[in-house]
Amino acid sequence: MKFYAQLDKNNKVVGISQLKGAVSEPHMIEISEEDYGEGVVLGRLYENGEFIEAPPEPEPEPTYEEEKARYLSLIKDAQTLGEDEEVERLQQEWKDLKIGKGW
Predict the structure, then answer these.
(1) Is the same domain home to 6 and 27?
(2) Which domain holds residue 40?
């Protein structure tokens, strides 16, 4: 049996395979049975003949609705506590954010 790491277009390992025979594809990199069994190469990058840790994926930007809900909650909390200056600051921050993001 042969064991392979399957790479995406960015050389990131997106899958591992156990095949009956050898394959000769640039996106299929032969790995050891141990690496296959432990799945240690999944998610790694293949660079210069080595599997290296991939940098973490960036956090997705919050949507308009998510940010709106967050600011409404913060403003409500500040109002409940009677913090008028904080309410005004948050309202202005929300307006500036909407302008900055083009919402």
Answers:
(1) yes
(2) 2-52
Give the Å distances, CA to CA, from 48 to 1, 9, 51, 71, 103. 25, 15, 8, 47, 44
**Residue 58 domain-assigned?**
no
Give CA–CA dist 51/34, Å, rounded.
14
Number of independent structural domains in the chain: 2
Q: Could you tell me which residues are beta bridge partners of residue 28?
A: 6
Q: Is 59 inside a domain boundary?
A: no
Of 59, 71, 80, give the one whose Cα is nearest residue 98: 71
Identify whether the C-beta of residue 27 lies closer than 8 Å to the C-beta of residue 5: no
Rounded CA-CA distance 75/67 in Å is 12
Taking residues 13-24, report their average pLDDT. 94
What pLDDT does residue 7 have? 97
pLDDT at position 23:
93
